[in-house]
Amino acid sequence: MLYVIGLGPGDQNLLTAEARQIIQQTPIIVGYATYIKLVSNLLKGKTVIQNGMHGEVERCQKALDLASEGQDVVIISSGDAGIYGMAGLIWELKSKQQLDISVKVIPGITASIAAAAHLGAPLMNDFCHISLSDLMTPWEVVAQRVEAAAQADFVICLYNPRSNHRPHKLRQALDIILKYKAPTTVVGVGTDVARLNEVDQVTTIADLDETTIGMTSIVIIGNKNTYAYQGKMITPRGYQL
Amino acid sequence: MLYVIGLGPGDQNLLTAEARQIIQQTPIIVGYATYIKLVSNLLKGKTVIQNGMHGEVERCQKALDLASEGQDVVIISSGDAGIYGMAGLIWELKSKQQLDISVKVIPGITASIAAAAHLGAPLMNDFCHISLSDLMTPWEVVAQRVEAAAQADFVICLYNPRSNHRPHKLRQALDIILKYKAPTTVVGVGTDVARLNEVDQVTTIADLDETTIGMTSIVIIGNKNTYAYQGKMITPRGYQL
């Protein structure tokens, strides 16, 4: 059996019981080195196979190969494995290679949900997830989604908002969003959520300082009804109060 | 302290460690009766305050009142409390009434993530959440969001897709989606996910039988690259394989 497990944002308190139990019971763990560290206390006596960033395909292939040999294997993602994580690649490779192995995906807390809990209640109305990385989705497609989401007044969660290699995509996305949303629209940013160095901020599109945003940030842009209160952002559900 | 806790879809294996621990340590639990039952084994000796459907405002007010008296209180939602759950209402009421209490939201596994894990890997590219209930959002706004999401080829998760009181909204939404997505677009439906009577299906927009969908279903409509394989739905991330 190959288990594909989402660890949540990092704090083991946010691991599900099922994820923890399967990690503890499975002899082989495969993962990105940074995420392996997050569960190092659970890995005593196990075979640990880790590699670096951009090694996703190699990592998934290794996990599939071991499972094909009849071994029980866990491959880990941060957040939820099914959201920009390893679950898709595992299923893609399994289907292309017609591998006769069993795959079980164990859900986890994705970054938007963890950040939202700390930022207030920004996701209480319809929302979308958009990754601003154009490594695997053409920027034209990303930009079209940003535009559609802004026009229909979704709350917008931006994954991979900004990195040293892509310093300008966030600004480009915000410029598209500003065609439809006011500069006073509330924005929340969670950086290193549920880790020791977590920093949260609630501001507006106009006042957002992009340089505070990095690889481990998630940006949540409110809808026209989202308001700020005591450093939190709140999107009304629509109750008459 | 008022803790707002998402239980996940129902199976306690999908509860986070933090959620379980806080429920166990807190003397007062407030919730919708159906969700109270999901954690009844954790509630021995506690004060349990429960009411029925559509009692959300009353329930939240009760929890806020008890917290205002200085008590430690848990209010529960299914899924994640911040996604169509109690977190927003708690924050809205706290802000409107200027209540001097501390609120902590504990994240949980929302229905789309739980269903996606069982349906394959449908959420591996940009996606959105839309609730088809027009009880609190005007249908024109919902319809505009469905249209925008379909046009920009998001994967679309439909919450509250169909009930006896709203039997036709799903059909209306699918008709909008079919203006932009092919009838062969892959659709997954998870009903009672992570509960004993769970039923999952992977089909297409054309073949979807709406009468199989109810209050406890979540519908996930793929993007143009989503494909079906061995009863699962897989949305490619964009890797060159």
UniProtKB/TrEMBL annotation, chains A, B:
Keyword S-adenosyl-L-methionine: yes
Pathway connected to this protein: Cofactor biosynthesis; adenosylcobalamin biosynthesis
Recorded superkingdom: Bacteria
SUPFAM superfamilies: Tetrapyrrole methylase
InterPro entries: 4pyrrol_Mease (IPR000878), 4pyrrol_Methylase_sf (IPR035996), 4pyrrole_Mease_sub1 (IPR014777), 4pyrrole_Mease_sub2 (IPR014776), Cbl_synth_CobJ/CibH_dom (IPR006363), Precorrin_MeTrfase (IPR051810)
Pfam families linked: TP_methylase
Keywords: Cobalamin biosynthesis, Methyltransferase, S-adenosyl-L-methionine, Transferase
Cell membrane among keywords: no
MF terms (GO), sorted A to Z: methyltransferase activity
Protein known as: Precorrin-3B C17-methyltransferase CbiH
Species of provenance: Bombilactobacillus mellifer
